[in-house]
Design goal:
The structure holds two protein chains of two kinds. Chain A is mainly α. Helix content of chain A is 88%, strand content 0%. In chain A, α5 packs across α12 and α9 crosses α10. The longest helix of chain A is centred in the middle third of the chain and has 36 residues. Among the domains of chain B are: 244 residues, tricorn interacting facor f3 domain (Immunoglobulin-like, Sandwich), CATH 2.60.40; 76 residues, Immunoglobulin-like, CATH 2.60.40. In chain B, a hairpin with a 5-residue loop joins β10 and β11. In chain B, α7 packs antiparallel against α10. The longest helix of chain B is centred in the last third of the chain and has 20 residues. The radius of gyration of chain B is 27 Å and the shape is globular. Chain B starts with a helix and ends with a helix. Classes of the chains: A mainly alpha, B alpha+beta. Chains A and B meet through α2, α3, α4, α5 and α7 of A and β26, α6, β33 and α11 of B.
Chain lengths: 278, 636
């Protein structure tokens, strides 16, 4: 497992241009929303001195007064975000297809990236959607009953600490089952890209391999998942606790995002290495 | 940073209680009754109570001494029987709630889960049995309500004379709906729990009579000052907390008997629970007792500091805390509905396990409830009829104390660059009310049909903050100190404060200034006028100012020309104003110091030719979207 993690990191660094491409695609989506946020602020407080105050740091009063006068100010942003998420998930299937196949072939070729992105698009989309439904079901099953009945549960317990412990317990179960589903999803795609069997066969093989090697694969999942979460956390802390030029802060945040994408690539590569696909 | 989290975790969860609060005091003798009479003690109570925790019932005898403060003979007495608010769904408190309180169905609870207070026997000092004559009365309507009891007297109580009533009663706690009640693991909170005298007083038009309203949801306190000598017997495994000072305790056969003495207070509350831990400390000579469930140990020093801050701040800005002790009880989460309330020298707070340090809601709440010791406890207004006199002032001082000790812009929230101060929150609660057409503050609680908190708490606090901005903090303190000194241990009314403010402002400012400040106070208390100043437009060297509301206060106008000259002008706000300058104007700002905090929209108070740059938010939006997309792609 540790060897695969190391190999995964090495491969991710070698394939950094592909991760960079993903960063650029995300950036395009970000710019769309960023532009809408800028427009909303311009139209509502752009010519007020409250705008100057707001531009120096988030001032909740300015924000609240803005929404009182312009309750629809952020409507465009609210409408765009769900559409953008769906669009990105559709595109990310293509990006993953290109990335996984490039790593398997160990070739850093844009042509191959694009060709295989197109070639595996629909099989990967079907696999991806299937697992998305399973993950959604798992989330509903574990979290919805707990959170919707949170007050009733806490009021019936002698200790509110027990409720928090039950959240931790459900969280652990969720991560363990999630790792199974996400690993099976990636392994199915790896299997499909390597052997070109049917989607069903790939799913079967993906699940079978994931069950068989559950512990080490879960270790890989948790390692990269934790690193990705840590980078997100550090990025937010860095952005909010250190005072610096906004452009430098922006570039630093992009670096954190880039590293998160690299972790995602490294996770794919580590799974491939473990299954001896590379 | 990691060490900080480990440290917090250890403080919250692992360290034994004694380690958390540095100055633990081992004896209960630190709370010593003052032995001075500070109030007109009209109503004294001496009770012996036995708690049967299996039945959730306190049974006892109360010897109630009432002195007739009026020049008239009194032939009947009215008493609050407020625990009957939780007797059934027909009470005024529960009626009209559609059986749901705080999102929970109440109508289908079992008989054992309802509560009540009942008098088994009542006699006067002649030994006459008054039990058969007592009846519930309904001056506030709702014939089914049983929260106000009339006790006809066989012999009138003459002016200045006293009557001693001996009352055998039972108080059965409900499973907590709100205020009083029991929860899991033998947690019991007794508030509004005994037959308590109403207030015999002279109303605004000079007539004497009982002021004794039914228990309504939003308002509840009004009582006469007196001495409470309370002896409580309960299981000796329980921790007991109560108003006043513990002066005696003994234990035998698995039962403990504790005696509390609370002097010059208007009510008495107490709680028992086997799971409450005790934390004690002193602020100067005031004894502070915290009662916290084990899960909330991590809040001990936060609550203690908040209480000390409040004591210190009131001492410096309003007046000396006049009692020997204060008890803050934080209920376990299962009984959170018992929390967030104030009782004389006893307050209930509220928190959750693992409350993060960046959110100061629990401190703010503890300070709010403590502030009620001054407004409601010592300045004992009639909350039912004029709730603003306590809730409004309390919110104002809560905001001031929080901002003084936890930062003007960070006193409520400070996380990931999002900051929120208390005053801003109060103002926001007022300005964001959906309807400002009926926001007069000084009205009985039952007449306020809109956003009660927005009007009584937040509008009052924002009005007082506005007044403070105009007259200065020092003058505000001077006015409030005099108000406290003059009216402590009395029942001040709206007219009391208005007249006091009028006298003070006229003696401290010019007639015209005092008139302006008084017009602000009166407009807010008795009217619904709002104010929203705005800059209509700038055209080269001409600027037009206007107002959307009927309320007006004089403000400063700051104009900056393209040659960077600053021009300060004044505007009374009563009618639109056009200002013409020699040079073209680059920006104009109405009330740049934001003195007029009641302004419904501060953003439109300024206008400038040059647009602000929002690159910070645009770039943050971009990277937030990227982080979100990257996180979501993890699942695909």
């Amino acid at each position: 497992m540790i060897k695969s993690i190391k190999r995964g990191l090495e491969v991710a660094i070698r394939f950094w241009p592909l991760a960079f491409l993903i960063l650029l695609v995300q950036l395009v989506f970000g710019i769309i929303v960023g532009g809408q946020v800028g427009d909303a602020l311009d139209h509502s407080i752009g010519f007020s001195q409250a705008g100057d105050l707001f531009s120096q740091g988030f001032d909740y009063s300015v924000y609240q007064d803005m929404l009182l006068e312009f309750p629809d100010a952020l409507n465009n942003v609210k409408c765009t975000i769900p559409i953008m998420i769906i669009a990105y998930l559709i595109i990310s299937i293509f990006l993953q297809g290109g990335l996984i196949s490039s790593i398997i072939k160990s070739e850093r070729s844009w042509k191959l990236f694009i060709q295989n992105g197109v070639r595996y698009y629909f099989p990967f989309l079907i696999i991806g959607l299937l697992f998305l439904v399973l993950i959604f079901g798992l989330t509903l099953l574990l979290w919805v009953p707990l959170l919707t009945n949170a007050i009733a549960i806490v009021e019936s317990l002698a200790s509110d600490r027990l409720f928090f412990f039950s959240i931790y317990a459900v969280g652990i179960v969720y991560i363990l089952v999630l790792s199974l589903l996400v690993n099976a999803s990636v392994n199915s795609r790896i299997n499909y890209a390597m052997l070109h069997h049917s989607i069903f066969s790939s799913l079967k093989a993906g699940f079978s391999w994931t069950f068989k090697k559950y512990l080490p694969l879960t270790g890989i999942f948790i390692f990269f998942g934790f690193l990705s979460f840590l980078l997100l956390f550090l990025s937010i802390r860095f952005d909010t606790s250190i005072s610096m030029n906004v452009w430098i802060s922006f570039i630093m945040t992009l670096l954190f995002i880039f590293m998160r994408i690299l972790m995602r690539s490294a996770y794919y590569a580590a799974l491939m290495d473990y299954s001896e696909a590379i | 940073m990691l060490m900080m989290y480990i440290n917090n975790f250890l403080r919250c969860c692992l360290l034994p209680a004694g380690v958390i609060v540095g100055s633990i005091i081992s004896s209960y003798g630190q709370c010593t009754p003052l032995n001075t009479v500070q109030s007109e003690r009209v109503a004294d109570y001496k009770m012996k109570i036995i708690l049967d925790h299996d039945k959730k019932m306190a049974t006892g005898t109360a010897i109630i001494t009432w002195r007739n403060p009026s020049p008239k003979a009194v032939k009947e007495i009215k008493m609050y029987m407020y625990l009957n608010a939780f007797k059934n769904m027909k009470s005024t408190w529960l009626r009209g709630t559609d059986g749901e309180i705080f999102g929970r169905q109440m109508a289908d609870r079992s008989a054992e889960e309802w509560g009540y207070v009942t008098i088994d026997h009542i006699a006067n000092n002649d030994g006459a049995d008054l039990t058969s004559g007592i009846k519930y009365v309904h001056a506030d309507g709702n014939e089914d309500d049983e929260t106000v009891l009339l006790v006809p007297l066989p012999r009138e109580v003459q002016s200045g004379d006293s009557i001693v009533l001996t009352v055998d009663f039972r108080s059965k706690l409900p499973k907590t709906i709100a205020r009083s009640g029991y929860g899991e693991n033998n947690f019991h909170l007794f508030v509004h729990w005994y037959p308590k005298l109403g207030v015999y007083e002279q109303n605004e038009v000079g007539q004497w009579g009982w002021n004794c309203h039914q228990f309504m949801q939003r308002t509840e306190f009004y009582g006469d000052f007196g001495k409470y000598d309370m002896t409580i017997t309960c299981d000796d495994s329980f921790t007991v907390g109560a108003s006043g000072c513990l002066i005696e305790e003994s234990s035998t056969d698995g039962l403990q008997t504790v005696r509390y003495l609370a002097e010059d207070v208007i009510d008495f509350a107490w709680c028992v629970s086997p799971e409450l831990e005790v934390y004690e400390d002193l602020w100067e000579d005031v004894y502070i007792k915290l009662l916290l469930p084990r899960d909330h140990r991590g809040m001990a020093d936060r609550y203690m500091m908040a209480t000390k801050h409040a004591l210190q701040y009131f001492d410096e800005h309003v007046g000396r805390y006049p009692y020997p002790g204060i008890t803050i009880m934080d209920p376990p989460f299962h009984s959170l509905r018992n929390g967030f309330m104030e009782y004389p020298t006893f307050a209930t707070a509220g928190t959750i396990y693992g409350m993060p340090s960046w959110f100061k809601g629990s401190e703010s709440l503890a300070i709010h409830e403590f502030a009620h010791q001054f407004f409601m406890g010592v300045l004992a207004n009639n909350e039912k009829e004029e709730a603003w006199l306590d809730e409004g002032f309390v919110t104002y001082y809560e905001d001031r104390i929080m901002e003084a000790y936890y930062g003007q812009h960070t006193s409520q929230l400070d996380v990931f660059g999002i900051k929120y101060g208390n005053s801003a929150l109060s103002r926001q609660e007022y300005v964001s009310m959906r309807d400002h057409s009926s926001t007069a503050i000084a009205r009985p609680g039952w007449e306020i049909t809109g956003d009660y908190k927005g009007i009584v708490y937040s509008k009052t606090a924002t009005m007082l903050k506005t007044l403070e901005n105009y007259i200065s903090v020092e003058k505000m303190d001077e006015m409030m100190r005099a108000y406290f000194d003059e009216y402590k241990f009395t029942h001040p009314r709206t007219s009391t404060f208005v007249n006091h403010a009028d006298r003070f402002l006229k003696s401290s400012f010019s007639q015209s200034e005092a008139d302006i400040y008084m017009s602000l106070i009166k407009a807010c208390l008795f009217g619904s006028d709002t104010v929203d100043y705005y800059v209509e437009h700038i055209e080269e060297n001409v600027v037009t100012l206007n107002s959307k509301g009927a309320l007006s206060m004089p403000v400063a106008i700051e104009l900056i020309t393209i040659t960077n000259d600053t021009i300060i002008q004044k505007w009374d706000g009563a009618s639109p104003k056009i200002i013409e300058t020699g040079d073209a104007i680059s920006s104009v700002h109405i009330d740049p110091q934001e003195k007029l905090y009641l302004d419904l929209n501060l953003n439109n108070n300024s206008l400038k030719v040059e647009k602000s740059s929002f690159s910070r938010y645009i770039l943050k939006a971009i990277t937030s979207v990227q982080h979100t997309l990257q996180s979501l792609s993890f699942f695909l």
